[in-house]
Design brief:
Helix 2 packs across helix 3 and helix 3 packs antiparallel against helix 4. It contains 4 helices and no strands. It is mainly α.
Length: 108
């Protein structure tokens, strides 16, 4: 349980930290590699766990990149999200976090 809490905390903190660094844009592959290495150091993952964690993180990074591109396009058009759209986006984001947590529990 401690490992799971640590993983979730590290993931959320690294996502927040990555959002604050505008100067260093990394590809989803690079993000997954770096985050996997951090988790390997913190949790002492074996090679099988590293592969599985990297795949999970890569999937998450690609989803995040697609969402970022979509939101940037909407912002450039001057479109704003309605209350229902914001609710739907937030609900989807939370569902993704729950799914991520479940997958990580299986690996650890």
């Amino acid at each position: 349980m401690k490992k799971l809490i640590l993983v979730v905390a590290l993931t959320l903190s690294s996502l927040t930290f990555a959002q604050n660094r505008k100067g260093s844009e990394m590809t989803p592959d690079q993000q997954a590699e770096i985050q996997t290495k951090r988790l390997t150091l913190d949790l002492d993952l074996n090679s099988n766990q590293q592969k599985e964690v990297k795949a999970i993180i890569l999937e998450q990074a690609k989803k995040r990149e697609a969402l970022k591109t979509e939101m940037k396009a909407k912002r450039e058009k001057g479109e704003k999200l309605s209350a229902d759209e914001r609710y739907e986006k937030q609900s989807d984001r939370l569902d993704d976090q729950i799914e991520f947590k479940v997958k990580m529990k299986k690996v650890l």
